[in-house]
Amino acid sequence: MSRLRTLPDPDLMPALDHAMVRHDLAAGLGPLNPPPRILLLYGSLRARSFSRLAVEEAARLLILFGAEVRIFDPSDLPLPDQVEGDDHPAVHELREHALWSEAMVWCSPERHGQITGIMKAQIDHLPLEFGGKRPTQGRTLAVMQVSGGSQSFNAVNTLRLLGRWMRMITIPNQSSVAMAFKEFGEDGRMRASSYYDRIVDVMEELVRFTTLRTFDPARARSGGVRRRPGGRNACCRNRHGVNHRRGRSGRIQSPLTPRRNDRAFQTILTAVPLLQGRGCLHFPGAEGIVSFGHSSFWGCQARLERLA
């Protein structure tokens, strides 16, 4: 029994102005082949769930932008700790989809000023680590919310906090749909509006961030930026007598590599030569590395260190 929802009319997007669609989202960032793998979660079980309808609109856009998507149905997901050892088929399947993914979209209704229990239960069933695997670390994340009243940002703010706790890279853009009952027709499709345009912007940004994060010459699925420094505890000594850390893949890690903000470092280090090649960035000295002294992704102070 699969708990993946079938996306109705994946190619039908009546609210989208196709003339405004960018077809080169990954230009200068990396290849879109194989396509980015994105898991979408929503936070309501109602038959007419606006968070699910918003997720379906996002999934159609992601497919248009070249991604591979999965939408998880949490209708029979137990509460955390309800089943001994989390030994439940729905929990196992959710974790398998999380491991499959390279990015996620979380969309929750705002209820009593917060995300719903359904949304939180799905996140709580994704441990930071199990069986030596990390189902969320280093993945990119887009957050969305729907509201029955005026526009609010309580749910997306909470989702951002949870994304940071789950060691994910949450993109700057976000979507908050106010008075969602007015934004969807009887057919369940979203009407053309600034709210829909924002979802388009968010999905474009998610694809670009995911492409950048997963890029390397071979587009390795092992996800090098998801490896924690704690896993590189074996050391070796090079011919110059300098200690280096060896990663799980066998690659030698420089001792100058920042430990606290390794994921942000890996992402920016990938971006720097690409931007330099396009004339967007210039650093004096070709043999430098970018390092960080602060744990935030965008707020960190970058400095160039010349290698001895």
Explain what you see.
It is a single chain. By secondary structure, the chain is α/β, with parallel strands linked by helices. It folds into 3 domains: 18-214, Rossmann fold (3-Layer(aba) Sandwich), CATH 3.40.50.360; 228-257, no CATH class; 258-308, no CATH class. 29% of the residues lie in helices and 16% in strands. The protein has 7 helices and 11 strands. Strands 1, 2, 3, 4, 5 and 6 form a 6-stranded parallel sheet that branches. Helix 1 (50-64) crosses helix 6 (194-214). The longest helix is centred in the middle third of the chain and has 21 residues, at 194-214. It is globular, with a radius of gyration of 21 Å. Mean pLDDT is 78; it is low at 217-261 and 279-308.
Looking at this protein, list some descriptive labels.
308 residues; alpha/beta; Rossmann fold; 3 domains; 6-stranded parallel beta sheet; 3-stranded antiparallel beta sheet; 29% helix; 16% strand; globular; disordered C terminus
